[in-house]
Amino acid sequence: MKLLWSLSVIIMFSGPALADVACIQRFLSTTAFNPGPIDGAWGRKTETALQGLIEQLDLEFDYEVSPRNSDQFCSYFEGADGEQVAAQAMVRDYGVAINIDQLSAFTGTTVVDFSQIVIAEELNLVCRFAIERQFRQDLTRIELMAAGRLEIISGLINFNAHAWRTGGLASDEYLHEEAVLAVDQEGAVNGSMPYFHLFINDGEVALPPEYVQLPREYVPNGAYPEGLTTFDVDEWQLGRLKIFNCSQR
């Protein structure tokens, strides 16, 4: 009996402490990396979740992912960096490549990749705007297509009260619901929006909007981020989005 008791003691204390493993599992359960049940048992699901979090966030440790190091992982997650790591791990990246156009078609909503720009997240403004067209063969000929008011909230643009002058299918719902635009640190507007590029008279066929990408060029005019962002439409016209008369929200 004494020999069996001694062996059980050795076995009990040779593995990771249950509290340390449960600590890791509790932390992972607050993220997108599911460790399985919080039972203090180091299993494949816990190890895979921990390894996945480390790889996605590109964390560096001087020790390997192993139950022998569960106390060190627990101390790290309970330390000063734990809250930030948890916030960064709320979404899991499975490394599946998908084309933005395909994703837009699948969701039925325009999806824009803003990863290559620095959004001016400090901007919270109410501004006036105008959408115009400019003829490539005569740059002095500029016609007003739509005008109204927009809000910039944390650098993202929301169109509010406005009206199109083009007739046909044009309505404020298009910009309200389908424009995906953000202001960058230079003041240029980036993203995608619907644009009615023709005036439609009574009796003519109503045409849907073109979906245009911004920017082509940005020229500041006034207090940041006021200015003119141009975009390509077709071979005979450019589009222009003017933002002006901005004030704090």
Alpha plus pi helix count: 7
The strand count comes to 9
Reported for the largest beta sheet, the result is:
6 strands, antiparallel
Helix and strand composition category: alpha+beta
How much strand?
25-35%
Morphology: elongated
What is the typical, i.e. mean, pLDDT?
Answer: 88
Descriptive overview:
- There is one protein chain.
- The protein is α+β, with helices and mostly antiparallel strands.
- It folds into 2 domains: 2-88, no CATH class; 124-248, no CATH class.
- The chain has 7 helices and 9 strands.
- The protein has helices at residues 2-14, 18-29, 44-57, 70-77, 82-88, 100-107, 172-178; strands at 124-135, 138-153, 156-164, 180-183, 189-195, 210-214, 217-220, 227-234, 237-248.
- The strands form 2 sheets. The chain has a 6-stranded antiparallel sheet with strand order 3-2-1-9-8-7. Strands 4-5-6 form a 3-stranded antiparallel sheet.
- α2 (18-29) crosses α4.
- Mean pLDDT is 88; it is low at 1-14.
Structural features:
28% helix; 249 residues; disordered N terminus; alpha+beta; 2 domains
Provide a short characterization of the protein structure:
This protein has 249 residues and is an alpha+beta fold. It is built from seven helices and nine strands. The chain has two domains: 87 residues, no CATH class; 125 residues, no CATH class.
